[in-house]
UniProtKB/TrEMBL annotation:
The keyword Plastid does not apply. Its main location: membrane. The chain crosses the membrane at residues 45-68, 88-112, 140-160, 166-187, 208-234. InterPro entries: AA_transpt_TM. One of its GO terms (molecular function) is L-amino acid transmembrane transporter activity. Keywords: Membrane, Transmembrane, Transmembrane helix. It is found in: Membrane. This is Sodium-coupled neutral amino acid transporter 7. It comes from Hirondellea gigas.
Length: 282
């Protein structure tokens, strides 16, 4: 039987996917760091990185679901007990996650810093000489303010799912909205060049229109994902979920109550599937 509530919950993953695969901001410094830069090398680097991310995300998600089912926490590490047997393994996972955050933070900080500085320089109307002279002091101030802001956000945020949804809304701009706008503007520029006779190559009208349709689709998808992510984040803040994530898993210990809970959940799922199958047969 079709359940509209379950169907609507499918869209809950869009902010998480946007957040997890958002690498457009750091793509420019990554491209700059490639030796003998060209499009082929850059495509290989991006493809390899995306494949690695997809494999790691899929393995973590599947093992989390197979272990905890629908009771898995938003932060899977919170589902493991780090005070008894196996606490060392859980702590190693936490340290590895912290190390990953520390190593990726500077790259993203560089992108944010350059964006803030460019807006500041444009707003002040500074001359090239003024930009060079004030660059060190400006860089220190911007980095310090951004670092304090990120620390404050980490302290205030009590639920990682809210942060992921908010960042997912911003990621939707970089993944869908901005590329769609750039593609649409590029198609208009090609049209103008051909009308003026200054284009060196001929582009089919049908092809340009198809590209325009694709760009508009990207823009609409970006607006939809952004609105959905902000709405979900607002709901999480205003109406915190009190969902029970079940007992903690003690790593390396045969926890009878934990596995009995999983067995009960599996039996319940099997019962619901049997009823659903019987209803379809009728």
């Amino acid at each position: 039987m079709f359940d509209k509530n379950e169907f609507a919950r499918m869209f809950d993953v869009l902010p998480t996917i946007s957040f997890g695969y958002q690498c457009h901001v750091s793509s420019v410094p990554i491209y700059y760091s490639i030796a003998n830069r060209n499009r082929k090398k850059y495509f290989k680097a991006c493809a390899l990185a995306m494949i690695c991310c997809a494999v790691v995300y899929s393995v973590a998600a599947n093992f989390g679901y197979l272990t905890f089912g629908s009771k898995v926490a938003d932060d899977i590490l919170l589902s493991y007990d780090n005070e008894h047997t196996g606490a060392m393994a859980v702590n190693i996972a936490v340290i590895a996650l912290a190390f990953k955050s520390v190593t990726t933070y500077p790259v993203l900080m560089f992108c944010v810093r350059e964006a803030v500085v460019s807006f500041y320089v444009s707003a002040r109307g500074m001359t090239p000489a003024e930009i060079v002279i004030t660059e060190p002091r400006r860089r220190y101030v911007v980095v310090l303010l951004l670092w304090l802001t990120s620390i404050a956000a980490a302290i205030v945020a009590t639920n990682i799912s809210v942060v992921v949804r908010l960042l997912g809304s911003l990621a939707a701009f970089f993944i869908f909205l901005i590329p769609g706008i750039c593609l649409f503007v590029h198609c208009n520029e090609l049209d103008e060049l051909e009308q003026n006779g200054s284009s060196g190559s001929h582009h089919s009208k049908v092809k340009l229109n198809l590209v325009r349709v694709a760009s508009i689709t990207y823009i609409l998808l970006g607006v939809f994902t952004f609105g959905l992510s902000v709405t979900l984040a607002a709901q999480s803040i205003l109406y915190p979920s009190s969902e029970d994530f079940g007992p903690l898993c003690v790593v390396g210990e045969n926890n009878t109550s934990f596995f009995l809970h999983l067995q009960s959940a599996a039996s319940s799922s099997h019962h619901h599937l049997s009823l659903l199958h019987a209803s379809y047969q009728k």
